[in-house]
Amino acid sequence: MSAEPPAAAEPPFEVRPSFVDEVLEVVDAIPAGHVLSYGDVAALLGSRAARAVGSVMRRYGHAHPWWRVVRSGGLPPTGHEARAKTHYEAEGTPLRALSRDPGYAVEYAKARWRP
DNA sequence: AAGTTGACGAAAT
DNA sequence: AATTTCGCCAACT
Predict the structure, then answer these.
(1) What is the reported pLDDT for A72?
(2) How far does the CA of A82 sit from the C1' of B12, in Å?
(3) Do residues A49 and A55 lie in contact, with contact meaning Cβ atoms separated by under 8 Å?
(4) Using CA atoms, how far apart are residues A46 and A56, in angstroms rounded to an integer?
(5) Is residue A91 helix, strand or coil?
(6) Where are the domains of chain A?
(7) Measured CA angle at A110 (ends A88, A67), to 5 deg
(8) Nucleotide nearest residue A58, measured CA to C1'
(9) Please, which pLDDT band fits residue A15 given cuts at 50, 70 and 90?
(10) What pLDDT is stored for residue A82 in this prediction?
């Protein structure tokens, strides 16, 4: 018998109908002076897709407080280091000087938003 | 339609 | 410590 066994295994997790909307909603909820990492945003959605969060932010984040989402360790978004620093100083986000890389980073342990 | 890329991240090498 | 590999999901080619 030849019938092909599709063996379609269903995902053990719920399928998110709109990952994009949920990402933007979380970002919009981060209070001024605080930050979340890309991975944290994904984790709040029950996912590990930190990269997908970055992809969403690049295309749709322009109308949202994109500077409140940082990389692991508090490094600002790639390609917008200087732009983000202006926002952090205006919001009083705790920063830390670095001797390398963009020259500064957010003090993630202090600035991290805990919902 | 299938593969590649990308504001990422942690673990393995 | 640096580079590579894998994971996740949307957008682009």
Answers:
(1) 94
(2) 33
(3) no
(4) 16
(5) helix
(6) 17-111
(7) 30
(8) B7
(9) low
(10) 94
| Domain at A17-111: CATH architecture | Orthogonal Bundle (1.10)
Beta bridge partners of A37: A70
CA of residue A30 to C1' of nucleotide C3, angstroms: 34
pTM: 0.87
In angstroms, rounded to a whole number, what is the distance separating the alpha carbons of residues A29 and A113?
A: 10
Positions of E strands within chain A: 36-37, 69-70, 95-97, 104-106
Q: What share of chain A is helix, strand, coil (3-state, %, to 5)?
A: 45, 10, 45
State, as a whole number of angstroms, the distance between the CA of A46 and the C1' of B4: 26
CA distance A70 to A37: 5
Q: How far apart are CA A37 and CA A44, in angstroms?
A: 11
Q: Could you give the angle at the alpha carbon of A113 between the alpha carbons of A108 and A115, nearest 5°?
A: 150
Written as six digits, the tokens of A22 are 């949920």
In whole angstroms, what separates CA A9 from the centre of its chain?
30
Closest C-alpha to A106, from A10, A56, A57, A38: A38
